[in-house]
Design brief:
- With 99 residues, this protein is α+β, with helices and mostly antiparallel strands.
- It is 39% helix and 25% strand.
- It has a four-stranded mixed β-sheet.
- A hairpin with a 3-residue loop joins β2 and β3.
- α1 runs antiparallel to α2.
- The longest helix is centred in the middle third of the chain and has 18 residues.
Length: 99
């Protein structure tokens, strides 16, 4: 199985960390750790070269060539896909995207 190089922007890592910190602040330390592990595992699965992903349905992101995928129907991952690499640009709540 071929894999692309994964590049995660700092803003994406900060958003994931902020969500994990919120979960942890509710007293759910183990859940916060599982959440971050699950997200980064999901991002690794996106790097499989055998799959390509659809362009975003939102017009602004589609015009820029971004591709979007939903994560557990609650978050959206916005990225740029090439043959050699996968650049993760945004990790945002799905309710912040206006279709």
């Amino acid at each position: 199985m071929g894999c692309r190089k994964i590049i995660i922007k700092e803003s994406v890592a900060n958003n994931i960390a902020a969500i994990a910190w919120f979960i942890e602040s509710k007293g759910l330390v183990a859940t916060a750790e599982k959440f971050t592990d699950a997200i980064y595992d999901f991002l690794e699965k996106l790097a499989d070269t055998r799959r390509t992903h659809a362009i975003c349905k939102e017009k602004e992101r589609a015009l820029l060539g971004f591709k979007c995928i939903s994560y557990k129907k609650k978050y959206t991952i916005v990225f740029i896909e090439t043959a050699e690499e996968l650049i993760i640009c945004e990790f945002i709540p799905s309710k912040n995207i206006y279709w």
